[in-house]
Amino acid sequence: MIDVKKAIALAVDSLKNFYAEPVSDLLLEEVERSEDGKYWLITLGFSVLPSSHPGNQFQQLSAALKTPVRIYKAIKIDADTGEFVSMKIREAQAA
């Protein structure tokens, strides 16, 4: 069984290995164990400069202004082995 600090480190390493663009302002947003205790569910937030490809209006405006976009990724780590299981887009919820 891996502890929470090890799970977070594995999630950060996974994100950096999979994400092609440089990230900045990497922050731990959320950590929880799955209800069955088999997985660590870790949300990481970071900023990237938007690309110029078509997207929604916010992305287009952000690209034009060269302002960073905040992205959130939900990463699932096996709690027993520390193996990476998945990475999904996590939408920010309105306050």
Question: Please, could you describe this protein's structure?
Answer:
By secondary structure, this protein is an alpha+beta fold. It has a single domain, classed as Nuclear Transport Factor 2, Chain: A, CATH 3.10.450. Helices cover 25% and strands 38% of the residues. It has two helices and four strands. Strands 1-2-3-4 form a four-stranded antiparallel beta sheet. A hairpin with a 5-residue loop joins strand 3 (69-78) and strand 4. The longest helix has 15 residues, at 4-18. The chain is elongated, with a radius of gyration of 15 Å. The mean pLDDT is 83.
For this entry, give a set of tags.
alpha+beta; 2 helices; Nuclear Transport Factor 2, Chain: A; 4 strands; 95 residues
Per-chain topology:
Layout: H1 4-18, E1 24-33, E2 39-48, H2 57-65, E3 69-78, E4 84-89
Antiparallel strand pairs: 1-2, 2-3, 3-4
- CATH-assigned fold name: Nuclear Transport Factor 2, Chain: A
Point out poorly predicted stretches. none
Number of helices: 2
Q: How many angstroms separate the termini?
A: 35 Å
Proportion of residues in β-strands: 35-45%
Give the C-alpha Rg: 15 Å
Backbone structural class: alpha+beta
Sheet with the most strands, sense and barrel status: 4 strands, antiparallel
Label the overall shape: elongated
CATH architecture: Roll
Enumerate the strands of the largest sheet in spatial order, edge to edge or round the barrel.
1-2-3-4
